[in-house]
Amino acid sequence: xxxxxxxxxxxxxxxxxxxxxxxxxxxxxxxxxxxxFDGNDxxxxxxxxxxxxxxxxxxxxxxxSSFILVDDVLTALQQLARYHRDxxxxxxxxxxxxxxxxxxxxxxxxxxxxxxxxxATIGNLNxxxxxxxxxxxxxxxxxxxxxxxxxxxxxEIEFLSAICQPDYGLITNFGxxxxxxxxxxxxxxxxxxxxxxYLKANDKTAIINTDDQKQIEQxxxxxxxYTFGSSQDNDCTITxxxxxxxxxxxxxxxxxxxxxxxxxxxxxxxxxxxxxHNFEVSKDLIKNAIESYTPNNxxxxxxxxxxxxxxxxxYNANPTSMxxxxxxxxxxxxxxxxxxxxxxxxxxxxxxxEHQSIVNYVEKHFKDRIFLVGENFYKTQCSDSTLxxxxxxxxxxKLTKGAFKNSAxxxxxxxxxxxxxxLEYI
Length: 426
Prior knowledge:
Layout: H1 3-11, E1 16-17, E2 28-30, H2 43-49, E3 53-56, E4 67-69, H3 73-87, E5 92-96, H4 101-112, E6 118-120, H5 130-136, E7 144-148, H6 156-164, E8 168-171, H7 179-182, H8 185-192, H9 194-201, E9 205-209, H10 213-219, E10 225-229, E11 236-242, E12 246-251, E13 254-261, H11 266-278, H12 283-292, E14 301-305, E15 308-313, H13 319-330, E16 336-342, H14 351-365, E17 370-373, H15 375-378, E18 386-389, H16 392-396, E19 407-412
Parallel strand pairs: 1-2, 2-3, 3-4, 5-7, 5-8, 6-7, 8-9, 9-10, 10-11, 15-19, 16-17, 16-19, 17-18
Antiparallel strand pairs: 11-12, 12-13, 14-15
Helix pairs in contact: 1-3, 3-5, 4-11, 4-12, 6-9, 11-12, 13-14
C-alpha cells in the first residue's frame, strides 16, 4: 500500500498505537516487533478491542478486513509520520542533548501551553518509535509541537530530524552519555550536532545558549539563530541567581524561583523562558509556568522523609550528569550527607575510567557515608570507609529504616539500577 493511501486511512482514525494495552477506540494499530514479542500476534486482539485498522507485516494475516499488509511495520510507521509532518503547517520545536532533555521539554511545554495549544512528546518517547508516534499525535488544531529526540549512536538524530522536521532546534548540552554507541565524546558532539546540520540545510532556527561555548562552536557562522544566556547581547537575557536548594533565575528584572535543584538545571529553565520570550508569552505567564512545574518520575525530585532531605535523581545517569549532581549536593548546607550512587550504563571501554573518576571525586569531597552499587562501581578502587555492593540485593541487606537522621541523601544512578527502591529501606 502506498503511503498516501495509508495516510487517508490514518486520518479516519483517532490516533496511532503500538500497544494493545493502551489501545483506544478507532486507533490505527501498528504491529511492531521487539526482541521478545511480535505485534502481529496481537493484531486480532487489537481489532476486537476497537482498532479501526491494524498495520501488519505477517502475510498469513488475511482473516480480518481491518488488516493492512505492509512490507515492514516500523518503516511504514516512520514514513507515515514523515508524510503527516509534511501536511502540518504549525511550528515544531525539536530538542536533543546529553542531559536534561525531558525536563527541558516539559518546561518548554509548561511555558508555551499558557498561551498556545501545544502537543509534546509524552514522557521520554524519543526514539525511532516514539518520535513518529509523537509526530502523528499532532494535529492542525494544535498551535505548536514539541518533539524530544534521543540517540545512542550517530546518524540517529539526522534520521529523527528528517521525520519531525523542526522549525526550531536546540541542544541542551554535550556530555558524556552513550559513549559506547557514539564512540567517545567527539562522537557525542558530532551525533547531537546532526540537529544543527538539519537546521542549516533547511534554513530553520537554532536556539543557542551563548553561555555554552560548545554550542557556539558547533553552530559556527550560521546566521538564523535565536540566542539566550547571561549576556545583554542575547535575544533573551536570563541570569542565574542561586541554586540552594532550588534554582532561581532573573528575567526582565523579575526573580523566577523553580522547583528544580542544581545549577545544571539553569540552562533547562533558561531555554524554556527564551522560547516563551520568542513566542511572546507574557512575563507573568512565564514566571507562573516555571514556578508551578514540579519534577517527577525520579528526576531531580526533592523528598522530605522524617528528618531527612532526599534528592532522588534515579531516572538516568552518565559521567556529566553524575558529576553535576555531586557538585550541587556538595553545596547543600547539611552537616550529614549520604550518597547512594549506582552504575552509569552505555560507557563501553570508558566505563572503568569514568566510574573510578567519580569515586575519586566523591572520596575527595565527601566525608560521610558513601554507598556504591553496581558491577562497575564494585570494580573500582576505594577506601575502606566507602561501601560498595555488586548487586542491589546486597545493598538492601545492609540498610535499616531510621538509620539516617537529619541528613541530606543523594540517590543517583542509571535507570536500569532502579535506585528509587532504596526509599523503602531507609
